[in-house]
Amino acid sequence: MVQPSRGDIASIDPSAVMRIKNLQLRAKTVVEGFFDGLHRSPMHGSSVEFSEYRPYTIGDDLRGLDWKRFARSDRLYIKKFEDETNRNCYLLVDQSRSMGYGSIEYTKIDYARTLAATFAYFLSLQRDCVGVLTFDETIGEFIPARRRVGHLHQMLVALSRPLGGKGTDIDSPLKQIANLVGRRGLVILISDLLTATDSLRTNLAYLRSRGHEVVILRTLDPAEVDFKLESPSMVLDMETGREIYLDPEAAAAQYQEQFAEHRKQLQTVCSSLGVSLHELGTHEPLHESLFHLLNSQQQRPRGATRAGMLARSARSGGTS
Predict the structure, then answer these.
(1) How far apart are alpha carbons 151 and 160 in whole angstroms?
(2) Predicted confidence (pLDDT) per residue in 64-79, tens digit
(3) Fewest 10 Å CB contacts: which of 53, 112, 114, 162?
(4) How many whole angstroms separate alpha carbon 30 and alpha carbon 290?
(5) How many whole angstroms separate alpha carbon 113 and alpha carbon 176?
(6) 226-279: per-residue pLDDT in tens?
(7) Phi and psi at residue 50, to the nearest 5°
């Protein structure tokens, strides 16, 4: 099985990516950098299993054509492999007010939108049907999973909407996806997960019981992980609007204890349900999320994974 290495891919400074105003160009920059690294990596072959045929469409790799079948039927067919089977993929993006926080030159929502755009672009290249659902304390935009001309642009427009709500309600989007999407697929949740774990467990369990694969990318600002205060301060709760007085030492100790406990609970919930949970600091290279997705795919119980298809796409110029 092909296993790309982080060392094969030169890191792109996320600050440089964020300075690109166009969201699609940001995503393309990250994905093409990822593919360029795979071009340079010493990968040979792939471990995919032949599944069925599908009609040839313009843009398909000609090396996949079955010429013997063409000679018999006078029609062009591509061999369709097990890991190429199209599926529905949904990107659930938290746009609550807490995602507007940033201690560096950009915010969590800037990073989360770019992550979502990167996955939308990447999965579209893999011929998956991709949809988007944004949320705060209510459902925002909902775009069903499709694969057609103009669909990527529609998703990127939805992702670019300004933050509006204050609170966070992860329950509603998880319930909506579970109820609306009958066919088993991939759900990628991008959020800071500043929410109670009990209801999260219930809704993740419901998604998993319906056969969906779930990947969570927990997006955090560096200051949220390594919390420090230089002096006594009045801080503003971004979701409630309430001002709170904080003593530096006491606040830091209490915060670290509660943060560590909450992180442990999230890990326990996700591990018990077979949900892939990855924590990403907004200062980390964006292509790390693609590694997390590939690793999740390779750990699926099925014999074939999408890593093989990614390898073939990289070797044949998949980003063209």
Answers:
(1) 15
(2) 677 777 777 777 776 6
(3) 162
(4) 9
(5) 21
(6) 887 777 777 777 667 788 877 778 888 888 999 999 999 999 999 999 999 999
(7) -65, 135
Asked whether 195 and 204 are in contact (CB, 8 A), the reply is no
d(CA 125, CA 118): 11
User: What residue type is assigned to position 205 of the chain?
Assistant: A
* Per-residue 3-state assignment (H helix, E strand, C coil) for 178-207: HHHCCCCEEEEEEECCCCCHHHHHHHHHHH
Containing H/E element for 251?
Answer: helix 248-273
Cβ-proximal residues to 103 (8 Å cutoff; 6+ apart), any chain: 221, 222, 223
Q: Which among 77, 37, 46 is positioned nearest to 60, based on CA atoms?
A: 77
Determine the topology of domain 86-302 in CATH. Answer: Rossmann fold (3.40.50)
Q: What is the pTM of this model?
A: 0.77
Tracing tokens 């792939």 back to the chain, one arrives at: 46
Torsion sign across C-alpha atoms 170, 93, 112, 278? positive
In sign, the C-alpha dihedral spanning 87, 194, 106, 292 is negative
185-216 tens-digit pLDDT: 899 999 999 888 998 999 999 999 989 999 99
Q: Tell me the DSSP string of 4-64.
A: --GGGSPPPPHHHHHT---HHHHHHHHHHHHHHHHHHS--------EEEEEE--TTS-GGG
Q: Are strands 88-94 and 185-191 parallel, antiparallel or unpaired?
A: parallel
**Which DSSP category does 163 fall into?**
P
